[in-house]
Design a protein that fits this description.
This protein is α/β, with parallel strands linked by helices. The chain has one domain (3-168): TIM Barrel (Alpha-Beta Barrel). 31% of the residues lie in helices and 20% in strands. The protein has helices spanning 37-41, 51-60, 81-90, 104-112, 130-134, 141-152, 171-180, 208-218; strands at 3-10, 19-24, 67-71, 94-99, 118-122, 157-164, 187-191, 225-228. The chain has an eight-stranded mixed sheet with strand order 1-2-3-4-5-6-7-8. Strand 7 (187-191), helix 8 and strand 8 (225-228) form a beta-alpha-beta unit. The chain starts with a strand and ends with a strand.
Length: 231
């Protein structure tokens, strides 16, 4: 397991739970607006935290924390992910997985084995612009569609979310996303946050009022559409 970060207490990463977040390194996408550029592009340059250290921390925090969010990078790339989740679950924690959905076979296996309590899947853009938003031209969008289906039929609590960037997302893209996830439990439009950590600079955020208008493009398809990360 390439564990490169541990947020010991968060009220934001796992809805309705006091949780810890574990950051795994490496990713199969190169989203230009990604906030974890070093973790995605140069995971070998980041400090490594031993899994034993993480598990010992979680043992000590039982009764204080109720959930663990596994994020990245892209967690489904890790061959030891299933065993890691099992160990966390055996401690009595609920497990939330953040994923880009490009490995539906891994996601399906975790769901079938009932190892997940919450799934947060990023929807990068419309299928027509997916490669541009993910930073990987020519990717197979049917893999994204398959993961959307798996998540929605999983019986597990879930959310879909999109980090909205002016240069990559407009009414056309948000309407198309709405059609792809029609009937979903909930969908979040996340405000883009510029920083030195992004993979590519030069992007801009929408104002809150603009995001509200874009949210209206999705509401005919998803009843519960909310904003996140905007003032």
């Amino acid at each position: 397991m390439r564990i490169h970060g541990l947020n010991k207490t968060t009220l934001l990463d796992y809805p309705e739970h006091v949780a810890a977040s574990v950051f795994l390194g490496g990713c199969n996408f190169r989203c230009p607006f990604c906030q974890n550029g070093d973790l995605v592009m140069r995971p070998e340059s980041q400090p490594v935290i031993a899994m034993a250290e993480v598990m010992e921390f979680l043992k000590k925090r039982k009764g204080i924390l109720t959930g663990v969010c596994i994020t990245g990078g892209e967690p489904t790339l890790e061959t030891g992910l299933e065993d890691f989740i099992r160990e966390i679950g055996e401690l009595g924690y609920l497990v939330k997985l953040d994923t880009n959905g490009y490995r539906p076979e891994t996601l399906c296996g975790l769901v079938e084995k009932k190892l997940l309590d919450y799934i947060a899947m990023d929807i990068k853009s419309s299928m027509e612009r997916y490669g541009e938003a993910a930073g990987v031209e020519g990717l197979d969008t049917e893999r994204i569609r398959e993961s959307i289906r798996i998540v929605m039929e999983s019986g597990v609590r879930y959310e879909f979310r999109t980090t909205v960037v002016k240069e990559l997302h407009g009414e056309k893209e948000l309407t198309a996303i709405g059609r792809e996830i029609a009937g979903a439990e909930k969908y979040f439009l996340q405000g883009y946050q510029d920083s030195r950590a992004v993979i590519q600079t030069g992007f801009h955020a929408y104002a809150k009022e603009e995001l509200e208008r874009l949210a209206e493009c999705v509401r005919p398809y998803v009843k519960n559409v909310r904003l996140r990360g905007v003032d």
